[in-house]
TrEMBL record:
The keyword Heme does not apply. Keywords: Carbohydrate metabolism, Glycosidase, Hydrolase, Metal-binding. Residues 26-46 are annotated as: Disordered. It comes from Nelumbo nucifera. One of its GO terms (molecular function) is calcium ion binding. The lineage of its organism: Eukaryota, Viridiplantae, Streptophyta, Embryophyta, Tracheophyta. Its cofactor is Ca(2+). One of its GO terms (biological process) is carbohydrate metabolic process. Residues 26-44 have a biased composition (Basic and acidic residues). SUPFAM superfamilies: (Trans)glycosidases, Glycosyl hydrolase domain. This is Alpha-amylase. Its EC number is 3.2.1.1. Residues 630-690 form the Alpha-amylase C-terminal beta-sheet domain. Belongs to the glycosyl hydrolase 13 family. It catalyses: Endohydrolysis of (1->4)-alpha-D-glucosidic linkages in polysaccharides containing three or more (1->4)-alpha-linked D-glucose units.
Length: 691
């Protein structure tokens, strides 16, 4: 069996949380071991968390040492209590939580809004996935609660078979009353001592993790002085053991400086004080969302901010800037701008001098201004970067255009060798060639270094938050990973566009091969980028054009596009500057655009809306669907239950919050008007919201 130790740090207000003591690990029972039976009293004790977790015998044990800190701050400006939960536990940690109003500690679900990644569990509790810290060590969460509640109740779920609780009881953090101090916090440390010979593989790290993060906020001077002494002792002890990193020691010294400054402030005022700015900042602070360049926050809605004709005015940046406030009010969180560089073609997709940002869309200064204006209304900005090919400035001795000028004055070694049009001296291409311009050889280290430097320059100089990557079929996704790790975008999406599968001119029902190619590219980037879900667009075409809505469910009853396999990396769309606008290479079925938006704006993935559709007679309907998506917190990882996929109708329920149908056929969601409220309807589509 396992022994448990706990260590509780000094706190200005003690007793906010008991020790973590039970780690329940599911494992196989050794062969030949018989049940020992248990008394009724034992059974009664084991039911204290019934419905939340299940106890299992421990066969293998592993040493772990982790900490959990719960801090409670009053925010008078918003009349709220802010509960901040911080832990160094590894992996995905789910907080199973609720609130109570009295000493009986009866669980309740507080009213929305709830933190991101929160789901209701059996109408009795909430489950919130804690968000990873920026440094990658542990996770945290912030909970904003009304002052009517007296306590915060929770247990931690590490995986399907592992829970943490307080000796069989819920963890309980009392919330401050009107006369309590502004901050209270408690730090708890758990340690499981290994007495077995084999480490466990039940989901907890085999290596002991040091709890080296100490959170100290406020309190009276005696508590602060004690904390300082503890921290100094911690440094001394760890120096002697030589187990602390220099960064950790510096972090502790910074904490001591903060504590000393706070103690002096308290000494001057005789009572604990916090500035109004600190309190407002605490209310504004939200737990770090699960940010990844392949997903952003997971709740993004993308606007393509141009069409094929946008360059013609010569002042597109200024025209678009005037619409920033309107696009923000519609609910867009990201806007995709056109290619910014000097280009042989006016649209920007034949770049020449990458550092010359005076284009047909406007000047470099106007570009900076439009990015600044979108940032001011809370919208992130993507730059459209063309990395696959580049137009040359000069001809070589054979009259071939493969010598470059400007800051990146590459020679023909930067061009792939297997493109006969441009006679490069680089290595062979690792993708499909784009025959209108020299294809860049990304295997050359000097090319990669120059492109990484350029992307970082764009991030710093212009303020771009991420990238739309053009024609990524032309080069290996592993190079994209390299570029994204260097430039650290908030969001990135690649254009991997090739033909779907057809037999004798008719689209195949099974498009697994097509979406697999997109998935393979995303995998090559190590998931650092998402990709446009061309598969879903193509299947929507056939389903709507031919009244074959059965196509919208694959053989396993899931969405048949990338959103059915890797929804968090799928950027769904129905039209863009290539497929629609004045090019019309693959135009969405006319008159059925709102069926397409009813699908992508209610389903997982990150939906992208085309500029021409926003500022058209579809404006009101698109606005309503975006508002519904935000209100119901549909996100890139939402769950889809397809309830109908027949010749003339497709229907689905998403996260048990939204029901929808497209097609002329009949459908009403189960439960009728008692469970669902019609949110919007249009030609051949309806969307309901859970009552």
């Amino acid at each position: 069996m396992c022994k448990l130790k706990y260590k509780k740090s000094t706190s200005s207000i003690a007793g906010a949380l008991g020790q973590i003591s039970n780690i329940l690990l599911k494992s196989e029972k050794p062969k030949g071991e018989e049940d020992t039976g248990e008394t009724n009293e034992t059974k009664k004790q084991n039911k204290c968390q019934e419905g939340f977790y299940e106890e299992h015998s421990i066969f293998k044990e592993v040493p772990v040492q982790n900490s959990l800190t719960v801090s409670v701050r009053k925010c008078p400006e918003k009349d709220k209590n802010l509960v901040h939960l911080d832990t160094d536990l590894p992996g995905d940690v789910i907080v199973h939580w609720g609130v109570c109003r009295d000493n009986d500690k009866k669980w309740e679900i507080p009213a929305a809004p709830h933190p991101p990644e929160t789901q209701i569990f059996k109408r009795k509790a909430l489950r919130t996935l804690l968000q990873p810290k920026e440094d990658g060590h542990g996770c945290l969460g912030l909970f904003s609660l009304d002052k009517e509640f007296t306590g915060f109740l929770f247990v931690l779920k590490l995986n399907e078979n592992t829970w943490l609780n307080d000796m069989g009881n819920d963890f309980y953090a009392p919330l401050p009353k009107a006369n309590d101090s502004l901050v209270q916090n408690t730090r708890v440390q758990t340690e499981v001592i290994n007495e077995g010979s084999e480490p466990s593989t039940a989901g907890i790290s085999e290596k002991t993790t040091e709890a080296d993060k100490v959170v100290v906020q406020g309190g009276y001077t005696d508590g602060i002085i004690t904390e300082i002494r503890n921290l100094v002792s911690d440094i001394s002890a760890e120096k002697s053991l030589k187990t602390k990193t220099k960064e950790t020691q510096e972090s502790i010294l910074q904490e001591i400086e903060k504590l000393a400054a706070e103690a002096y402030s308290i000494f001057r005022s005789s009572t604990p004080t916090f500035s109004e700015e600190e309190i407002l900042e605490a209310e504004r602070l939200k737990p770090s969302l699960r940010i990844c360049p392949g997903t952003g926050s997971g709740y993004e809605i993308l606007c393509q901010g141009f069409n094929w004709e946008s360059h013609k005015s010569g002042r597109w940046y200024m025209e678009l800037s005037e619409k920033a406030t309107e696009l923000s009010s519609l609910g867009f969180t990201i806007i995709w701008l056109p290619p910014p560089t000097e280009s042989v073609s006016p649209h920007g997709y034949m770049p020449k001098d990458l550092y010359n940002l005076n284009s047909r869309y406007g000047s470099m200064e106007e570009l900076k201004l439009v990015v600044k204006n979108f940032h001011e209304v809370g919208i992130k900005v993507l730059g459209d970067v063309v990395l696959n090919h580049r137009c040359a400035h000069y001809q070589n001795k054979n009259g071939v255009w493969n010598i470059f000028g400007g800051k990146l004055n590459w020679d023909d070694r930067a061009v792939v060798s297997d493109d006969p049009h441009f006679q490069g001296r680089g290595n062979k291409s690792n993708g499909d060639n784009f025959h209108a311009a020299p294809n860049i050889d990304h295997s050359q280290e000097f090319v990669r270094n120059d492109l990484k430097e350029w992307l970082c320059w764009l991030r710093k100089e212009i303020g771009y938050d991420g990238w739309r990557l053009d024609f990524v079929r032309g080069f290996w996704g592993g190079y994209v990973k390299d570029y994204l790790e260097a430039s650290e975008p908030y969001f990135a999406v690649g254009e991997y566009w090739d033909s779907l599968g057809y037999t004798y001119g008719e689209m195949d029902y099974n498009q697994d091969g097509h979406r697999q190619r997109i998935i393979d590219w995303i995998n090559a980037t190590n998931g650092t980028a998402g990709a446009f879900d061309v598969t879903t667009k193509g299947i929507l075409h056939s389903a709507l054009e031919r009244c074959e809505y059965w196509r919208l469910s694959d053989q396993k009853g899931k969405p048949p596009g990338v959103i059915g396999w890797w929804p968090s990396r799928a950027i769904t769309f129905i039209e863009n500057h290539d497929t629609g606008s004045t090019q019309g290479h693959w135009r969405f079925p006319s008159g059925k655009e709102m069926q397409g938006y009813a699908y992508i704006l209610t389903h997982p993935g990150t939906p992208a809306v085309f500029y021409d559709h926003i500022f058209s007679h579809y404006h009101s309907e698109i606005s309503t669907l975006i508002s519904l998506r935000h209100r119901t917190e549909i996100n890139c990882r939402s769950k889809v239950q397809i309830t109908k996929a027949e010749r003339d109708v497709y229907a689905a329920i998403i996260d048990d919050k939204v029901a929808m149908k497209i097609g002329p056929g009949y459908y009403e969601p189960p439960g009728g008007s008692g469970r669902w409220v019609l949110a919007i309807e249009g030609k051949d589509y309806k969307v309901w919201e859970a009552a």
